[in-house]
Amino acid sequence: MINRRHIRLKVMQSLYAYFTSNNKDLEKAQKQMLKEFKDIATLYLLILSLPHILAQFSKVFLEEQKNKHFATDFDKGHSKKFENNQIVKLISEDKMLLKEMNKVSGFWKNNEYDLIRKLFVKIWKSDIYKDYCNASETTFEKDKEFLLSIFDKNIIEDELLHHILEEESIFWMDDLPFVGNIIYSQIKATKNEESRILFSTTFKNKDDNEFAKELLRKTILNHKEFEEVITKKAKNWDLERIATMDQILLMMALCELMYFAEIPVKVSLNEYIEVAKYYSTDKSKGFINGILDKVISEYRKSGKIKKVGRGLLE
Questions:
Q1: 43 CB contacts (<8 Å, ≥6 apart)?
Q2: Fold classification of 222-312 (topology level)
Q3: Cys-Cys link to 92, which of 52, 218, 230, 307 (CB 3.0-4.6 A)?
């Protein structure tokens, strides 16, 4: 599921927790990091299950509306449109997927009144929902268009959803845009009633799993060496004056340059500059780029950067 950039982000978060903690236990740090990777899969299942749960809730809510004393024609009609959405059915009728979603279903039951009801009411009041219900024909493409619209505009951007997720995990708000993009792309890729939305495991392969563990371990084990490099290259800067996040990003980048022979230099350089844009200070991008440029230029000449295979690509 996750790509290398997101792996670097999770390693960065774990390293920050490690270096700012009084308890420097590498094995515990790795165990906690792997748990946080597993939590991404949990978040994926929670968000993927929302259309199914909302469609189920629509039956209860719309029945309430029909029984009102002053129910409108709109209240009385279209009660099964969301419930019978063909994309929702792809999710809810997939036994393997449903089995995985049921493992986390208790989470939404605990938040049903606060979130599910309020989220559905917001959708129900929207022009997207009204236009969908008032459409004269129902097709697979129209069902998909509707679900993509409410997923993008109503579900992923919901502030109460954000609050609930953040209460559960401080990292989930960093993971949500990534998870949301995956689910959106999976829904968009469906072609017909025979399509399947395949459950995505956390890591795409064993190499990505090993990359995460090795990047964490090698950065920690060699951090003294990296600190010396940073201090030498950051003229007029004491290590204490460099933002902790910048130090961590620089150490991770140096680790990849020196100890990951099959990762191209340009890939490592671009990735950490990009991460710095979002997770450090305004000046971090230029600072990190400057330090790494100096290191790469010197270490290439001295032979300290040794790349093989794919790592030789420029």
A1: 165, 169, 172, 175, 176, 179
A2: N-utilizing Substance Protein B Homolog; Chain A (1.10.940)
A3: 52
Pairwise CA distance, residues 155 & 176, whole Å: 11
Helix (H) or strand (E) holding 103: none
Q: Where are the domains of the chain?
A: 4-188, 222-312
| CA–CA dist 100, 199 (Å, integer) | 8
Q: Which of 17, 58, 8, 24 is nearest to 253 (CA)?
A: 8
Q: Give the pTM.
A: 0.86
How distant, in Å, are the alpha carbons of 75, 81, 133, 200 from that of 136?
A: 17, 11, 8, 36
Residue 72's φ and ψ, nearest 5 degrees, are -85, 170
Q: Are 263 and 311 in contact (CB under 8 A)?
A: yes
Q: Which two tokens stand for residue 109?
A: 């039951």
